[in-house]
Each structure stands twice: as C-alpha cells, then as structure tokens.
Please model this.
Amino acid sequence: MTSDKQPNRTMKVRCCVVGGGPAGMMLGYLLGRSGIDVIVLEKHADFFRDFRGDTVHPSTLQVMDELGLIDGFLKLPHQRLQKMDGLFGGTPVRIADLSRLHTKYPFIAFMPQWDFLNFLREAGRRFASLEVMMSTEAVDLIRRGETVAGVRAKTPDGIIDIEADLTIACDGRHSTVRERAGLEVEEIGAPMDVLWFRAGRRPDETENVFARVEPGKMMITFDRGDYWQCAYVIAKGQYEAVKARGLQALLDDVVRMAPILRSGITDVKSFDEIKLLTVAINRLKRWTQPGLLCIGDAAHAMSPVGGVGVNLAVQDAVATANLLADKLQLGCPSEDELDAIRRRREFPVKMTQRMQVIVQNNIISGALQGGDRPLKVPLVVRLVTALPWLQGIPARLLALGVRPEHVHSRAAPAP
Model:
C-alpha cells in the first residue's frame, strides 16, 4: 500500500534564527556579516504592525554606529527625546536628562519598529550568507535524540523542514520555540496593563510632558510628529471594567490628564482603535538546550517601564554574535558555550527587571490605587528634579543599560 503524502521540503543551514524582531534581525545581520550561513524566519509577510517598541536608545545607536550604519539609519523619519519631564499629581518633575551623558548619541530616537527592521533587512542584503524568509512560521522543533536539530515551519507553499546546527529562538514573549522546547519560565509579575492608541497632532501643538500621574490614573505621551502616541496605564485585569464605563468616559479621562490631546482625541472612534498590551515580566531559568538558544523576549519579557525592551534584545544579539560567531564556523557550539550568553546577559536582565519592579511597586501601583488623597511626589523623584546633576543617573540607566554591549564579532572579508 502506498501513501500519497508528499515528504516535506528540506533545507540545511548552519544557524536558523526564529523571529524577525529586533533580536532576530540584528543577530541575522551580525552573523551574515561574519559569513555564517544563517536564515531568519519571520511569520508575517511584512514588518508593518503597530509595535509598542519604538524607542531606540543610545546603546542601540552606538551599535549601529559601530556597524557603519548610523548615517543611513538616522536619515529615516524619527523624533528625538533628551529631557524626560512629567506631571506627578500636577507637580512638574524631571525624570532624566540624556544631554548630561558623555555618549556619542545622547538622545532616544522614536522610530516605528517596522522602519528599524526593514532597514536591517535591506542593509543585510549584501551578505550572501544571510537569508530572511518572510511568511514562514516555525511550528515545531526537529530533534535528534536530546539535540534540537532545526525547526519545522509553515510557509505559503507548505511545510518545510529547516535543519540547522544551531536554532536561536527570537520569537518573542509568546515563543513557540520556547514552548516546544519545554523551557521553564519564571513569572515575576506586573500590576498593570496598557491601552495603546494614537491621537491626532496639529503642527502648532507642542508639549514636553512625557509622563502624567494622577490618583488612579497614569499616562505616557510621545510626540510622533503628525500624531501623539499614547499609553494609558490601567490596573492589571481592569480592561473589561474600562470598556464597561464606555469609550467616552475613557477619552474624557485622557483629555483631563492631557488637555493638549483635546482636538486629536476625536480620531479615536471605537475601542477597536485601542490596543490592550498585557504587561508581563518574566525570564527563563535556563536559556539553552543542546542545539538551541533563546534570547530577547523569548528569554526575558520586560515591562514597558523605561522602554528598554528593543534595546535589551539588540544587546542580546550583539553578545550572541560576539561569543558564538567564530565557533559557528566549525558547527554547533556546545551547550556550555551556548550558556555563556545567559552568563553574560542574565545580570543586566535581572538588574533591569528589578528596577522595573521597584518603579511598579513604589510609583505605579500607588498611583493606580487612586483614592481621595492628593499624590505626593516620591522623595527620589523630588531629589532628581531638584538636583540636575542627579538627572544623568536615570538617564544613563535608560540610555545605556547595566552592561552595554559593543560589536566585537569580526566581519568576513568582502568577496
């Protein structure tokens, strides 16, 4: 008896990177630059989605500079932020001042993430060893005994088996690869979720207020040129209660907090235009299995506090290329060599998450509890506001992180 089932198509590659986000695209670029035979899989047909991670920090700008990409990168449309000002219970505060940093790029660039990812894809086309496969979703792992030997992926043309010496999961906080590998996630928790929406901006509208905190309410606004990007913070699990109050009640709260949005808020016609971002902080206890490594959000989901997620993902990618590119020339690194990535990156991840938890527990949770008493500006925020030289400390933590990475992986000779 014969079967009509066709065998899966098969490809072989040195390294398969699953996920075309900041970690995956940066790692693909770096490995391609080193002459490693690498494929990056992106499940969508393009990068054009309303990502939340639009903040490109000085640490990432420095990496782009070290790669010789910065001039073209900064020609892309973006806005720059140096001073982070806020209103805490109506009292003006300054959270950080990046102009006080001794770094080549002392500002945060606000850029749509799809522009960042498209730029890396286009820049990587000159590397013959790099291939980016769009509309290709990893759905399972290929194993040889205890070793991960690649992924099975769904494409518009059917299933394909991509056999790889090393598979690297960069497929985000809901990582399919991580789940298929059975790696254990340590949940740290977050007290809030975020409602993400846009409000129109007139050319004559300008305001430097970045964060607004009032009893029971918190909101962040980003000036994106022709619109305001807004993040309205709610207590964890309260989205249905917000919807039950009605759209107009929410928009009235927004305008009370940020009167400058009064004209542009009319662009928000329904809850369909408001995205719920479920906030999570977690990390893997183990980042590896034989033949497999997880980095970026697949290894550690970050809170939006500080907007550091994109930049930590890029730092992971740089560290991975620094430590593994030469070894990949010879085949799959040992699990101990793969675990060197965790040993290098776990400390900055834990420290960043710890700082996010401190902000959540001491500022955000108290603000979201509400009540009739006026909010008091926390002592540390009062000190930072009153003493300008202190504003460089949070600026450095935001801009450069705990352990910034620099590009040390070698570039392969030009053909």
The chain has a mean pLDDT of 91.
